[in-house]
Design a protein that fits this description.
Length: 347
């Protein structure tokens, strides 16, 4: 159990290190207005805090920095909500003030503004993509023998793929096929597209389209939906500006992990709970994130779905400010996406 004096010293050390990224020494600590103890007293208390694992030495300075245990205690027991400035609130509200009718636009703007407000990397995961329903299928010719197939869903999501087709295939056959696909597949959830294409459409296409099998194969590839929902990023390169990642090897490891996306998806995908979750350093169970904290807000969306909004930053993160921003934005995002998702289900 920490004494009141130790609690105060630990809080001042962490707050100071978050602001400065510089190790904190007992002499500089004793000069702070909040600390009314002698340098010797502060030094003794810091020694006890280090022995208990809340702070640790660095290789480059005689000062101390918070340990993961220290950050965890700080987040769990010492944080108080930070009141957001009006400028922050206005920026968040601006996401929803424009006439935006597509889910992806709202999600992308949310990621962008959140990264600008924090100077960290933001990640947003919207509703389950595989439950989106087909609204329209289009084919746009590019060159002789190539075209782009476009699938638009009821939430405004767009999937597009370039594909090849036999050069002797007539334009009217392609147009006929697109009409058949729209007639039969509009309203189908993306997760069912592939099966319906082979089980229902193959027989129909065989009757009406020459070389139907080649076209069927091309469309089957197009209709293979990603194994997980799309992640939207803001400020992917922001971590380069953090002193913790001045080591090029650490930075490369982190950027590779961000680009691969699968690990991040597994970390932020919605689970049973709603609300804020903070993972610090090794709690992320990924060597690339040992110097990072990940704060995730999981929020409800209509029809029992959930979305996630996350900030990836250094362990030396402005936890109170980030949590306040996530709480506000996730609430607004929950309402906006629920409204849009509800409308798409009604149409």
């Amino acid at each position: 159990m920490l004494t009141d004096r130790q609690l105060l010293i630990l809080q001042v050390i962490i707050d100071d290190f978050i602001r400065s990224a510089q190790p904190v020494g007992s002499r500089s600590l004793s000069k702070k207005n909040e600390i009314q103890f002698s340098s010797a007293t502060v030094r003794n208390e810091m020694s006890d805090l280090e022995e208990m694992g809340f702070i640790e030495k660095t290789h480059t300075s005689s000062g101390r920095v918070p340990s993961e245990k220290g950050y965890r205690f700080y987040v769990d027991h010492m944080l108080s909500p930070q009141a957001l400035q009006q400028q922050d609130i206005s920026q968040i509200h601006s996401i929803f003030a424009e006439r935006i009718y597509e889910m992806e636009n709202i999600v992308q703007r949310s990621a962008k503004i959140l990264s600008e407000l924090t100077n960290y990397t933001s990640i947003v995961l919207g509703p389950n993509l595989q439950e989106n329903r087909v609204k329209q299928i289009q084919v746009v010719p590019l060159t002789e023998g190539t075209a782009i197939a476009i699938i638009v869903t009821d939430t405004g999501h767009v999937e597009s793929r370039r594909f090849s087709f036999p050069k002797d295939l007539k334009a009217e056959d392609i147009e006929h096929m697109v009409r058949l696909l729209n007639d039969r597949l509009v309203g189908t959830p993306l997760m069912e597209l592939h099966d319906r294409l082979y089980k229902e459409m193959a027989i129909l296409l065989k009757r009406h389209i020459a070389n139907y099998d080649l076209m069927l194969q091309a469309f089957a590839e197009i209709m293979n939906v990603p194994v997980h929902d799309k992640l939207f990023f803001g400020g992917k390169m922001n971590m380069m500006n953090q002193p913790e990642f001045s080591d090029i090897d650490k930075l490369r490891l982190l950027m590779d992990m961000i680009e691969r996306e699968d690990n991040l998806y597994n970390l932020i995908r919605p689970t049973d709970g709603i609300g804020i979750q903070v993972k610090i350093g090794k709690e992320n169970e990924n060597v690339a994130m040992e110097n990072c904290s990940l704060i995730t807000a999981t929020f409800p969306i209509a029809s029992g779905q959930k979305g996630s909004l996350a900030i990836l930053g250094p362990t030396r993160m402005e936890y109170s400010r980030v949590i306040s921003l996530l709480n506000m934005l996730s609430g607004d995002l929950s309402k906006a996406l629920s409204d849009l998702y509800g409308k798409s289900q009604e149409s």
